Amino acid sequence: MYNTKEKFGTMGKVIDHDDGTYSVYLYAGAAGVMNLKFTLVLQREAIQWLKSVVLSTEKRAAWIGTFTQGNVTEKKDCFIQREGTWEDKCQFPHIALGKTMFLCDPPATLPCGTLSLITVSRKPKGKATETPTSLFKKPNALQNINGPNSLEIKDIMTRSSDYEMHAVPKCRANISDALLDGYWLKDRWVSMVCQNRQWKDTGEVQQCLRNKEVYFLGDSTTRQWFQIFIETFGYPIKVNASNWRKQVDSIPGSYKVTAEDDYSWDLHDIKNNITAVYHHHALSRHSAIPIHRFPYFSDVVNQLRAPQCNYVILISLWAHFDTWTKDSFVDRLVILKENIDRLLQRCPRTKIVIKGPHERNSIGNHWLLYDMINTLKDVFKGSVFFFDIWDMNFAYAYANKKRIDIHMPMDLIREEVNFFLNYVCLN
Questions:
Q1: In angstroms, rounded to a whole number, what is the distance separating the alpha carbons of residues 372 and 106?
Q2: Is the pTM higher than 0.90?
Q3: Cα Rg for the chain, rounded, in angstroms?
Q4: 289 — phi, psi (to 5°)?
């Protein structure tokens, strides 16, 4: 339900009564004439095929490995595999992968230890059985369902806020799901999961973060967060669509930047002793990435042993994992969860946020990403805060006439970071 003039948008919750009927709940967060849109994204048969075939197909996550020694270079296929057996392969085990192994076809003349770079392969060795393409095309997918196109919401005067009327709690770890996640009005996200106030006072943010180390562990969508975060606590930059990928410079006496490249760097606020760190995860789907360049996050978490224990950690693992089998993905998450549990034993005041996925404007992986929400919640349940951004992103797109994409507009990212601060600073 949305109104682009008011920049209002919210996503409905569908309840299946298992008798051929459904109930749809929407939150009337603003008055006026609202547009309604009901969409059948995928049918049951498509989801069953994704569950039973795609999620169990090995070798869909694949790379081209570059082996280099002196002036000799060879390129070979690489992939991950968990089930079955393999022979005559270069093996690159890591405890963070659990039972999953990173493998490469051996080069003709060079030893396995000369693997230097990996580049994502667009022609993976593993392919699911022939895709039933008709299930992912109209009229079987993305089909608009007949129903009312609009409704008018009357303005009801009340002195109570949404939070007072619905007893919306403060953000806390292991918080229960709400019936509806919230709504956009103008440029603000009003969460119905937990209270999110606005953080406009830089001094207040600095006071919250003083003497803390804040880690952003994820992918390029996490990099967007990192850039907005350093802006929020005072670094003089206005982040936009054209500069969020660029490293910022040190400012003598105020900020010190240490960077290896765009995939790993940190910024230290000297006056307030705030350190913000960004790392991209290992085995990414990029080009010419040094194989040992990116850390496994279980290692990063395990190395956090400062006696002050002033840690805040944001983890986002989803955008590069829709080609992994579900078992391999869960392996990686479980190992990470074990290291998080040990960190919380050492440093029980540590704040940890797990950020969920959003859609990438592809019907082929729509459900695969959506299914990750439950997978992440199941693995990380306990002493972490799970930030489900799926409905928040869709509602923003409708309210602002925007397209859903892997890198969403920075106005949306600002509200995501703002929501993050409500858990970090008010809990």
A1: 33
A2: yes
A3: 23
A4: -95, 125
Characterise 224 by phi-psi region: left (phi > 0), alpha (psi -120 to 50), beta (else).
alpha
Q: Kindly state the tokens that stand for 307.
A: 């006696």
Tens of pLDDT, residue by residue over 181-212, are: 999 999 999 999 999 999 999 999 999 999 99
Using alpha carbons, select from 12, 95, 44 the residue that is nearest to residue 335.
95
How many residues make up the chain in this entry?
427
List the structure tokens of 1: 């339900």
From CA 212, how far away is CA 310, in angstroms rounded? 5
Nearest to 417 by CA among 216, 172, 272, 277: 216
* Rounded CA separation 126/63 (Å): 12
Q: Which two tokens stand for residue 249?
A: 């410079």
CA dist 340 and 350 (Å) reads: 10
Q: What's the confidence (pLDDT) of residue 427?
A: 65
Q: What confidence tens digit (pLDDT) does each residue in 308-346 have?
A: 999 999 999 999 999 999 999 999 999 999 999 999 999
Strands 289-290 and 90-92: unpaired
Q: Position of tokens 């224990």?
A: 309
Please list, in sequence order, all residues whose beta carbon lies within 8 angstroms of the beta carbon of residue 191, skipping any fewer than 6 positions away: 168, 181, 182, 419
Residue among 223, 221, 406, 218 nearest 317 (CA)? 218
Closest residue by Cα to residue 373 from 388, 394, 352: 388
User: What order do you get walking across the sheet with 264-269 strand by strand?
Assistant: 255-261, 264-269, 274-280, 213-218, 311-315, 351-355, 385-387
